[in-house]
Design goal:
Layout lengths: L8 H11 L15 H6 L1 H11 L7 E8 L2 H12 L4 E7 L3 H12 L6 E8 L5 E3 L12 H8 L4 H22 L5 E6 L5 H9 L4 H7 L6 H6 L6 H8 E6 L2 H14 L6 E3 L4 H25 L9 E4 L4 H11 L9 E4 L27 E3 L7 H6 L2 E4 L5 E2 L5 E2 L4 H10 L6 E6 L8 H13 L1 E2 L2 E9 L6 E9 L5 E7 L14 H19 L8 E3 L4 H4 L23 H6 L13
Parallel strand pairs: 1-2, 1-5, 2-3, 5-6, 6-7, 7-19, 8-9, 8-11, 9-10, 11-14, 14-18
Antiparallel strand pairs: 3-4, 12-13, 15-16, 16-17, 17-18
Helix pairs in contact: 1-5, 3-4, 3-18, 4-18, 8-11, 8-12, 13-14, 13-18
């Protein structure tokens, strides 16, 4: 660990705690700097060994857009072991410690084989290239990228960087001898929807840059000058994409429904058994763990809270309901649920392993379709709102189903009677989308400093003992001196990434399936230009680690995104009857 010997003592201790792969980190013998991470994700390593002799990723460039965790570093190393010699990693950072801990290991990998990037968030909520994380030898035009992202939101900024990297990688594929193929492996639908949609629209390269806030790059544009539009470029050099999450899967499916096809195939684990049923347990646990720690830092406890779970019939939300029912003083009397599926029924078949979304997960649980539809007395006492929906959903008529709206905050200010006059907002969802309208509303109020009779200020939610930042506190003080406090855990970002995300022994299985299906994509670049989902499509299922259906002979319909007419009508996964399942 010579490369990290100059870390401050506190950072070095953090390194020991995070890596935790040996009793004495200083005595670890490391060959390739990322080997240690791969060795600790046992299932990922087993998939790697299964394919390593064939070197399936030789001649493939990979854009890897994922979280900066030790398990993801093990996954990156798996891609390298499988023959990939050109990986660009765009890490999505929610944990402030991760870059300090893992950056030195990434810095040891030769530049020609791996480049890593992430964004830094300023105190004003703006985003820029994290120069401390990017290697000094990397000729990334950081100033130009910062300018292109100026004033943009989180998703736009992440897509701006990912689009810049994608264009550069596609240009490298064009100039390589022989020409290479590129694939995107991502967590959250950052690039696959953009590349597919722009290709099918035959969008010009210049228009693609402008539409997606991509900084100019004359060198890249010169290499791609022979391409008339994105369609031609994508068809020649993009092999396909791999999606990890349901949120990203929905975005790709929307492109498919819009055009009736994709430009290139997308393989996904997003709706597989292990992703929707197994991982959901751990995500629910990590969300509750993060909330518990944030509450402790503020002198509060979980068992005394009155909780509303928005998305109460989803895979994660339902498990949060079950877990909370065992943690709170009054069991389900302290929990209420909100879900768009409340009041709907359907007789459509579904996988035998998928719980019905038309039944409450707990008997006697009070539920409604909107937060404002809950009884007034229930809303008055609610002091924790979990949002686990993926954010606002667009209906067929163009209007939106929101998670929370500013009127809900007005209600809390004027009529709320929660303990300590506090309202805690916790996202177990994606990016900063869960409470998007409320976030914009509250941040606008803080900027003004006044809202009606209230003066409004914000500060970080900092643990006085550890100095760890758990989120943001918004304090509303009325003209008569009454104080109310709105607290956003993890600054509106997913609470499950406050610490470790999903524990290693669980996420190992998920990432192993991600690596396995990535190899399956590369071995089937001529697959139909559509979504190929594990447990739904034979080419993405048979022989894949932890596939639930064995064997899958016929393709089955995959779920539609929740903001399409078909989904609004049925809100149900379509499944063929009579499939056989592994035990």
């Amino acid at each position: 660990l010579a490369s990290v010997s100059n870390l401050e003592a506190s950072e070095h201790q953090c390194l020991r705690s995070q890596v935790s792969f040996a009793k004495d980190v200083d005595k670890m013998e490391i060959g390739d700097p990322l080997d240690t991470f791969l060795e600790k994700v046992v299932r990922v390593n087993s998939v790697t060994r299964k394919h390593e002799a064939d070197q399936p990723l030789a001649g493939i460039s990979v854009l890897f857009v994922h979280h900066l965790t030790r398990e993801c570093l093990g996954t990156v190393q798996a891609l390298r072991k499988l023959g990939c010699k050109d990986i660009r990693c765009q890490f999505l950072g929610y944990n402030a410690d991760a870059a300090k801990v893992f950056g030195p290991f990434l810095a040891e990998v030769p530049d020609a084989e791996l480049k890593a990037y992430k964004l830094a968030e300023g105190e004003d909520g703006s985003y820029s290239i994290d120069r401390a994380f990017t290697k000094p030898s990397d000729a990334l035009p950081a100033d130009a990228l910062d300018e292109a992202m100026k004033g943009k939101d989180y998703l736009t900024c992440q897509r701006s960087l990912a689009s810049f990297l994608s264009m550069g990688m596609l240009a490298s594929c064009e100039t390589s001898e022989p020409p290479l193929k590129m694939i995107v492996i991502e967590d959250g639908g950052y690039m696959a929807p953009l590349l597919n949609d722009s290709a099918l629209r035959e969008q010009s390269l210049a228009s693609f840059r402008k539409e997606n806030s991509v900084a100019e790059d004359k060198d890249t544009d010169g290499k791609l000058a022979s391409f008339s539009d994105m369609g031609e470029l994508v068809q020649k050099h993009l092999g396909g994409t791999v999606e990890h999450t349901r949120n990203g899967y929905d975005k790709v499916q929307k492109v498919y429904l819009k055009h009736g096809k994709l430009a290139r195939p997308c393989f996904t684990i997003a709706i597989s058994y292990v992703k929707t049923q197994f991982e959901a347990l751990s995500v629910a646990d990590t969300c509750i763990n993060s909330l518990t720690n944030a509450l402790f830092s503020h002198g509060r406890n979980l068992r005394a809270r009155d909780v509303c779970v928005i998305g109460s019939r989803g895979n994660i939300g339902g498990r949060c309901i079950k877990a909370l029912s065992n943690r709170l003083n009054g069991t389900t009397t302290q929990i209420v649920g909100v879900d768009l599926k409340v009041g709907f029924t359907s007789s459509e078949p579904r996988p035998v392993w998928e719980p019905s979304p038309y039944n409450s997960v707990e008997d006697c649980l009070l539920e409604s379709r909107k937060f404002s539809d809950l009884p007034v007395e229930t809303r008055k006492k609610t002091d924790v709102i979990f949002g686990i929906t993926g954010g606002r959903q667009q209906k067929a008529d163009g209007s939106w189903d929101e998670t929370l709206v500013p009127k809900d905050i007005d209600f809390w200010l004027t009529e709320g009677e929660s303990k300590y006059n506090e309202l805690w907002l916790v996202s177990g969802s994606t990016k900063t989308k869960e409470f998007e309208l409320v976030k914009s509303f509250v941040e606008g109020i803080v900027e003004e400093g006044q809202y009606g009779e209230y003066t409004v200020v914000s500060e970080n939610l900092v643990d006085s003992l550890t100095q760890r930042d758990y989120g943001q506190i918004y304090t509303f003080t009325s003209s008569c001196g009454k104080v109310k406090t709105l607290i956003s855990v993890t600054d509106w970002k997913p609470a499950n990434f406050m610490f470790y995300g999903v524990p290693t022994e669980d996420i190992d299985i998920i990432l192993a399936q991600l690596v396995d299906v990535s190899v399956r994509l590369v071995n089937n670049l001529d697959a139909n230009n559509q979504v190929h989902a594990v447990d739904y499509d034979p080419v993405a299922t048979n022989g894949i680690i932890e596939a639930k259906v064995d064997p899958l002979k016929d393709e089955v319909m995959v779920p539609s995104p929740p903001d399409t007419q078909a989904a609004q009508d049925s809100l149900m996964t379509i499944w063929k009857v009579g499939q056989t399942y592994q035990d």
